[in-house]
Amino acid sequence: MGLNHRAVALQLIIFVTQWGLMIIGFGILAAVVGPLRIQSDPSLGRYFDAAVKAMIALVLSISWLFIWDRQVRVYFYRKREDIAEPV
Amino acid sequence: MVERRHRNSQRGRFPTTDNPSLREIISFIIGSDDSAFMLPSGWEVTTAVLLAIISVPVSLVLTRFFMQVNARRGIFGIDVHKLSKPRIPEMCGAAIPVTLILLSSIYVLIGGGNSIMMLAFSLVVGSAAVVGAVDDRLKMRGIYKPLLTLLCGLPIVALGLLFPNQVYNPTLQVPIFGSFHLPVIYPLSIPVAISVTSNTTNMLDPLNGTMAGGVSIISAALLIGVLITAPAPSAVFLYACLLFSALGFFYFNRYPSRAFAGNVGQLSVGAALGALAILSRTEIASIVAMFPNIQNSFFFLSKIKRFTEHRALTAKPTKLLDDGRLASSSDPKAPLTLVRTLLVGRPAKESEIVSTIFALFLVSAALALITMILIG
Question: What is the ipTM of this complex?
Answer without folding.
Answer: 0.88
